[in-house]
Amino acid sequence: MRRIFGILLLGLTFHGPAWADDGQYRWNLADLYSSPSAWDADAKELSDEIGSLQACQGQLGDSATRLKACLDLNFEATKRFYRLFAFALLRRDQDTSDTGGNELLQRAGVLRSRLNQGTAFLQPELLALGPKQVQTLLSEEPALAIYGHYLDNVERASSHTLTKEGEGVIAAFGLIDNTADSVYTIFTNAEMPRAMIKLPDGTEARLDDSGYEQYRQVESRDVRKLVFDEFWGAQKKFEETLGTTLYKAMQRDWVNASVRHYPDSLSAKLDDDKVPVAVYQTLIEQVNSGLPTLHRYLRLRARLLGIPDLHYYDLYSPLVHSDRKYSPEVAEALTLKAVEPLGEVYVHEMREAFGHRWVDFYPRPHKTSGGYMMGAAYNVHPYLLLNHDDSYESVSTFAHEFGHAMHTRLADEAQPFVNSKYSIFVAEIASTCNEELLLEHMLKVSKSDDERIFYLGSALENLRGTFFRQAMFAEFERDTHQIVDRGEPLSGAALTRLYGDLLKRYYGDPEGVVKIDDLYAVEWSFIPHFYNAFYVYQYATSVAASSLFADAIVQRKSGARERYLELLRAGNSDYPYELVKKAGVDLATPAPYQSLLARMNRIMDQIEALTAKRGH
Ligand SMILES: [Zn+2]
User: Fold this and answer.
1) pTM reported for the whole predicted model
2) Is 76 a catalytic residue?
C-alpha cells in the first residue's frame, strides 16, 4: 500500500565540541506529557481506539456518517500515536543512555505496529468501494470534505494495487525488503575497518565518518590530501561489497516498481507524492546547463585560497576564517530580524516560540548528534534538537530548523490533522528560505568586508552542497537505476566509473577547474541516501524554489509573501508539486533553477567587488 502518512525528521548533521547544562537551553517535554503515568494513560487510550476501529471493518461503505466516524477514529488514533512517539523519541535523544527513554521508544514501536495492523483494512476497503461510491458518500456528508485529498490519494493507488493474494505476497516479502540497507548500515557504522592518520602535532586520528568530516576542513593542504587518500583508500577496499549492497537495493526498487506496473523505478518513486517526472528531468537539464556557474565558484575558491591547482580535497576548507561566537540568544535575535520580510504574523509566532523552551540547544554526553525539528505532535508545538557550538554554522542551522518549525506551526494551525503533515518535497523550501533571509540580514549588518566575504562564502558553499551536489546525486541515481531497470549488471567498479565521469564533468576536471583523483570516485559508496532512492533531488528542487520565493519576498513583489505563507499553511491539503505551483513556482520549468544560478552569480559578483577593493 501507498505510504500516506509518515513522520518526518528534518535535520542536518554536524558535530559540536562544548556542552552546557542549563534549563533554559533545554526543551520542556512536560508540554507533551506531565508524568510517565500520563504517557501510559494515553497509550491505553490509543489501544482502546485501535480496538474500537475494528468494528469499522466491512462498514466503511454503509453510510456517509459511518465513513466519517471511522475516518475520524483512524486519524484520532494516528494523532495520539504521533504524540506518544514524539515524547519517546525526544526523551531517548536527549539522553541515549537513559534506559527509560529507550524503553518508551520500544513501546512506541509496538504501538506503531499495532496501529498499522489495526488500520490495515482501511485502504483496501476504501479502494474496493470504488471512486464512484466514494464520490457519492462525499457529496452526502459535507463534513467529509476534509478527507477529500486523503481519499483521492488512496484512490490513485488503484491501478498499482494487486489482488489480495498479490498484496499478501508483497507484504510477506516486505520482511526482507531492506536486507541490503541493513547490511550497508551495520557494516559502515560498526564493522568496516577505518584508517588511522598521524596529524602534524603527532596525535593520531581515526578516520570514521565524523573524523573525515572534521579533518577534511583543516588548513594544511598536505593533511587534507592525506585525509582523502586514507579515507577513500579504506573505502575502496570494499568497493565490490558496497557495490553489491547498492546494486541489490536498486534491484529491490525495480522489483517493487515493476510488480506494481510502473514503467521504471523513477516514476514509481515519484508517484508516491505525485511529483511529475518532468520535475526530475528539468532539474538535471538545468543543473547541467548551469555548470559554468559552479566552475566560476570553484575558480573563485581557488583564487581566494591561493591554490593554482584546486583538487577535490580542497573543497571543504573555509574560504575565510572567523572566530566570532554566536550564543543561542544571538542566534534567536538574528533569526528574528532576518525573517521580518515574512511579515508580522510570522515574526510574532516565532518570538512567542522563543520564550517557551522548544529547543534543546547544546551538545552533552549521550545526547544525539546532529540537529532536527520534530513536528509530530499536533496541537502541542514543534521541538528542535540542536548541537549549538556558537559558530555561524550553528546560527544558520538554527534559522533552517526554525523554518521547519514555523512551517509545522502554520500548517497545524490552518489544517485539520489529516492534512497537516506536509511532504518533504515542500519541507526544505521553508527551511532554506530562512537561510537565504538570514544571509540578506547578515550582509546588511556586517561591519567589515571580511565579515561580508565570510557570509557570502558560506552561502556559496551551501549552494554547492544543497544544489549542485544533490543534483549530481540525482543524476547518478537516475542513470544507475536505468541500468538496473533494464536488467543489466552493475559492479562496484562500474559504479565508480559512472560516478567518476559525473564528478569530473560537474567539477570541470577536463577544463582544469578541479582535479579529480580516480581514487575519490568511490565516493558513491559513502552516501547512505542512495538506499532511499530518489530522495535527495528534493533538496535541490527546494533550494531552487526557495531562491525564487526569497527573491520575490525581499523585493516585496506584490502578493509574493502571501502566496508563500499560504503554501506553508496549506500543509498537506493537496499534492506538493501542485501546492508549490499554486504559490507561483513551477518546478517543472527552468525558472526556479535559473533564479538560483542568478543568485549564485550575484553573490560572486559581490565577493569579487569586495576583493577587488582590497586589491586581491
Ligand atoms: Zn531541513
Assistant:
1) 0.92
2) no
